[in-house]
Write a structure and sequence with these properties.
Blueprint (H helix, E strand, L loop, with lengths): L1 H23 L5 H17 L13 H12 L4 H8 L3 H4 L4 H8 L1 H10 L10 H18 L2 H15 L9 H18 L3 H15 L1 H35 L5 E6 L2 H11 L10 E7 L2 H14 L1 E9 L12 E6 L5 E8 H9 L3 H8 L3 H8 L3 H13 L3 H10 L5 E5 L5 E5 L4 H8 L1 H6 E6 L2 E3 L11 E5 L16 H33 L13 H11 L4 H9 L5 H14 L6 H9 L10 E3 L7 E3 L11 E6 L3 E6 L3 H9 L4 E6 L7 E10 L4 H11 L3 E10 L4 E10 L2 H12 L4 E6 L1
Parallel strand pairs: 2-5, 11-15, 12-14
Antiparallel strand pairs: 1-2, 3-4, 4-5, 6-7, 8-9, 8-10, 13-14, 13-15, 16-18, 16-19, 17-18
Length: 738
């Protein structure tokens, strides 16, 4: 009897919830309402027997999420997806089942909301990153995905207290770090504020309760002050015969906490807990209302912001001014029109609000286009990143609200994250401009590419067809778009260099097997390459060559297999090449020396442990995924590698025409005295050696200065001349190549 009573109560509760949902969906036409009813019946059937942590039937959760979406006036397809958003994951149905019942659009929305199935990933974070990537890309295609997801997260946060406490920190942290910033980026300020406060409640419960009590006391003390201010405002606007709506607004608990932390102040020092919002009928009346307020109360200098002329990146528009209000209390006022208020509170969801309320098309488009550039940039970043964690790192950069507003030469306003540089601006305008940027003018004056932009700057980017992205830009760019574009270029260049290096290595290894060149990619050699690629596990020849260039595979092993396949297909080795290999040492791994021309790339680098320079005897080591690393033959690290992994070591020699400088560390012991460093540096300059870095330490008990320098020289002969010249300095006691 008790069980039956509980079941009946649960059914009654869910029916009551659906009745309240229907009351919110009266903006839909009859066929749309019927579709929502069908989705509810199926969702109720699918979730039958499933319960929430609170003990309520699980269907109450999809109903609550759908009700939040109905508050935004989302269409019937979105409401159906909200009702079914957990069906794929929790109820064992397939996407095709949803397509058959409700069409592909609803199925795509649900699929975008569904977490990925268990994948062979190494960490929970990796799985999370992949899930977020899937959700964000679905959101870039259809913004309703993120609206439903934010409604889902909002209800989960509202009911987080019913879940085991061990989950609170993880879910609240994820909400604060990811979902709240996404809500803010899309202009959903009401949702943003609620998610922030709910996260704060579970991450810092003691501080949350303390501030809740303090705010309640402050509200009680300020009640008379607020009522007095309301009357004064109504009288002032009545005198001007302006139709306005005046309402109070209160700072959120989390924003109070952030301000206390940032400014290192107590709660009693926060003087802008309460403010007023003034809603007027037109944009011009916003500025008229500003004049009325400034006439009534004295403005605080430097506390006025015009977000109407320069909207925020998420589309927010409003005038902000801080005034000395009643009883000399500072009060912040926000002045905006009703459409601006809808967009300020609902962001991208304002599109459906406008549509439902029958407002003009321009306003609808204004709401719908909020955040459009950022959503489009998600697809660009996805195209340039393979790893889900890297994708999320790029996106995370753009989720924080602080921004600077700058102008293009054609007076177009652009919003960029605070700290953004000229390179970020160039990539925001167009990826080609970013790739080709060489220098820039800020407010008519030449400026370095790493210059941080300030509000109001006018930027003109100077491009050149020969310019290319510089890896050093990664150290200062701020936006995810710029970072992903630069990294994509670096990967492309690395792939190109690795292909060239891999081909050189394979040709060299094949010569020791008696074949002058690798087989052509034609019909005659297709069978050979198919078998060779099956052996290596690569999909294409380019992929194989890149792996060889990066050291992921060993050229001699691949060459032996290719030689065997060539022989099987009737192509005998060249006797002259074989005899040449035998005369040069007989061992396929050492028969031919690799020529080093001094160029460095992703596929060839000079070892940092021994700093080889032309004239040194050298050896190459094919690192695992690092390409060819050139060491001095006497380097202790190289000797260990030769003993441990001889298959990856190859003899190397310098080319005859190496025309660049190389960095070499030297160590000098000199008698400490005035002008010693000046004498050393002047002699280095006279010897045509450039100083890259100087580190100087003094031994106080002996009076001997220990100088460690890194200098740029052409070759070993040039280094010998430099050391000989320095040795003639009287103060120099000892000098060695480090």
């Amino acid at each position: 009897m008790v069980v039956a009573a509980k079941k009946a109560a649960s059914i009654s509760a869910s029916e009551a919830s659906f009745a309240s949902l229907l009351a919110k969906t009266q903006y839909l036409d009859a066929p749309s309402l019927d579709l929502v009813r069908q989705a509810y019946r199926w969702a109720d059937e699918l979730h039958l027997g499933q319960m929430r942590h609170s003990g309520d039937p699980y269907i109450t959760h999809p109903l609550a999420v759908t009700a939040l979406c109905a508050d935004w006036r989302l269409d019937a397809q979105a409401l159906c997806a909200a009702l079914l958003h957990d069906a794929l994951e929790d109820c064992g149905i397939a996407k095709g089942d949803i397509v058959l019942r409700f069409g592909s659009t609803v199925a795509d929305l649900v699929d975008g909301l569904t977490k990925l199935e268990k994948l062979p990933v190494t960490t929970r974070e990796e799985n999370q990153s992949e899930s977020f990537r899937k959700m964000l890309l679905a959101m870039a295609t259809d913004v309703r995905v993120i609206l439903i997801k934010l409604a889902d997260r909002t209800h989960n946060m509202r009911t987080l207290g019913d879940t085991p406490p061990i989950k609170w920190a993880r879910i609240a942290g994820e909400t604060q770090e990811i979902y709240a910033p996404i809500a803010h980026r899309l202009g959903l300020n009401q949702t943003y504020r609620e998610l922030q406060d709910l996260s704060f409640k579970y991450l810092k419960p003691w501080r949350y309760e303390t501030l809740t009590r303090a705010t309640a006391k402050a509200r009680a003390r300020a009640r008379d002050l607020i009522q007095r201010g309301q009357k004064e405002l109504e009288a002032a606007f009545a005198a001007t015969k302006m139709a306005v709506t005046i309402s109070g607004r209160e700072k959120t608990l989390f924003s109070i906490y952030k301000k206390m932390r940032a400014k290192h102040v107590n709660f009693s020092d926060i003087n802008d807990l309460f403010g007023f919002r003034v809603i007027v009928n037109s944009q011009s009346e916003c500025y008229t209302a500003l004049g009325v307020l400034h006439h009534l109360y004295k403005p605080v200098p430097g506390r006025f912001k015009d977000h109407i002329a320069i909207p925020k990146a998420n589309g927010y528009q409003s005038l902000h001014t801080t005034l000395i209000g009643p009883s000399a209390v500072t009060v912040e006022f926000q002045i905006r029109t009703e459409p601006m208020h809808w967009i300020a509170e609902s962001g991208v969801a304002a599109h459906w609000l406008y549509k439902a309320k029958g407002n003009d098309l321009a306003a609808s488009n204004a709401g719908h286009n909020i955040g459009a550039q950022w959503l489009e940039s998600l697809l660009d970043i996805q195209n340039e990143t393979v790893d889900a964690s890297e994708f999320w790192d790029h996106v995370r950069v753009d989720l924080f609200p602080d921004a600077v507003y700058v102008f293009t030469p054609k007076n177009r306003i652009m919003a960029l994250p605070r700290g953004a540089t000229v390179v970020d601006f160039a990539y925001a305008v167009h990826s080609t401009i970013g790739d080709r940027c060489m220098s820039a003018k800020i407010n008519g004056e030449l400026a370095p590419l790493r210059t941080e932009l300030k509000n109001g700057d006018r930027i003109e980017v100077i491009t050149a067809s020969v310019s290319q992205p510089n890896p050093a830009w990664l150290s200062f760019v701020r936006t995810g778009r710029a970072r992903s574009k630069i990294r994509q270029y670096m990967k492309t260049q690395a792939q190109s260099h690795s292909l060239v290096m891999g081909e050189r290595l394979l040709v060299q290894a094949l010569r020791t097997e008696g074949y002058a060149a690798i087989p052509a990619q034609d019909a005659a050699s297709k069978a050979i390459w198919d078998k060779a690629l099956r052996f290596t596990g690569n999909k294409t020849l380019d992929e194989l060559l890149a792996d060889l260039g990066l050291g992921k595979r060993i050229a001699t092993v691949v060459a032996k297999r290719l030689a065997r396949l060539l022989a099987e297909h009737g192509q005998a080795p060249d006797p002259l090449l074989l005899s040449s290999a035998l005369m040069l040492g007989g061992d396929a791994s050492t028969a031919h020396q690799f020529i080093i021309d001094g160029s460095e790339s992703a596929s060839m680098t000079m070892a940092a442990c021994c700093h080889p320079i032309p004239g040194d005897e050298i050896v190459g080591y094919l690192g695992h995924g690092e390409g060819l690393i050139v060491h001095r033959s006497e380097c202790s690290a190289a000797l260990k590698l030769i003993r441990k992994d001889a298959d990856r070591v190859m003899p190397a020699v310098w080319a005859d025409d190496v025309s660049r400088t190389f960095i070499v560390p030297i160590q000098i012991n000199a008698a400490d005295g005035q002008g010693v460093l000046a004498q050393i540096t002047s002699n280095l300059a006279a010897a045509d050696a450039n100083i890259v870095h100087v580190d100087m330490a003094q031994e106080p008990t002996t009076g001997i200065a220990d100088l460690r320098l890194r200098i740029a020289v052409r070759d070993a002969s040039h280094l010998a001349q430099v050391l000989a010249r320095l040795a003639r300095v009287k103060a120099v006691l000892k000098i060695v190549r480090a």
